[in-house]
Design a protein that fits this description.
The radius of gyration is 29 Å and the shape is globular. Helix content is 20%, strand content 34%. The chain has three helices and eight strands; from the N terminus they run αββββββββαα.
Length: 202
């Protein structure tokens, strides 16, 4: 009888621990926020920064890998909204993604080459290391997948500081070196008059 009483006491503790473990797993679920890289034919073609803006996820071009002959500073000349003529670098091209676990849906993605906006969704891998972006017209079946890989946070140091300031203001503030004490103005240099040339002896 005592064994049974002991089991009744242990069972709620085990169940409680299992539930707490599930809860911790849910809260520790990876997020799409971070820096991502797209690779084609073994070469990087773009870096994308994804941020959480109060529950709506947004993505921006963080680094461009231009081909020879590409314009050095491309702009979205065919965009028709607030992004009209904005530079591609730093451009918000993913908007309004709503998170549902590892899925991000009901968002849209802009193709800056033609200014067209497509419906979009993203799926994060369970380990948080790959992100599948799907843009589509009408229904998701008529779309195309792109798979991006996560870059370590240390690579943010290579991203233009204006992009960090725009999308990660808290991080930008933390990255700024602390202002040192103001330097005293340098004293003017003393100029010495040239020594007089002795007159030749007569």
């Amino acid at each position: 009888m005592r064994k049974l009483a002991g089991l009744q006491l242990i069972l709620p503790i085990v169940i409680g621990l299992a539930f707490a473990g599930d809860l911790a797993a849910q809260t520790a679920e990876p997020s799409a926020s971070g820096l991502w890289q797209k690779v084609e034919k073994g070469k990087p073609v773009g870096w994308f920064l994804v941020v959480d803006r109060n529950g709506a996820f947004e993505g921006a071009f963080a680094k461009l890998f231009l081909e020879p002959g590409d314009p050095p500073n491309p702009v979205c000349s065919k965009c028709t909204d607030d992004r009209k003529d904005a530079p591609w670098l730093g451009l918000s091209f993913i908007r309004d993604m709503k998170r549902d676990g590892l899925k991000y849906e009901n968002g849209n993605v802009l193709d800056p080459r033609d200014g067209k906006i497509y419906k979009a969704k993203m799926t994060l891998s369970a380990d948080g290391q790959t992100l599948t972006m799907r843009g589509y017209l009408g229904i998701s079946l008529l779309g195309k997948d792109e798979v991006w890989t996560r870059l370590p946070d240390t690579e943010l140091a290579q991203v233009d500081p204006t992009i960090i300031a725009k999308y990660l203001p808290a991080q930008a503030a933390a990255m700024k070196p602390p202002a040192g004490p103001a330097k005293a103005p340098a004293a003017p240099k003393k100029t010495t008059a040239p020594a007089p040339v002795p007159a030749p002896a007569r």
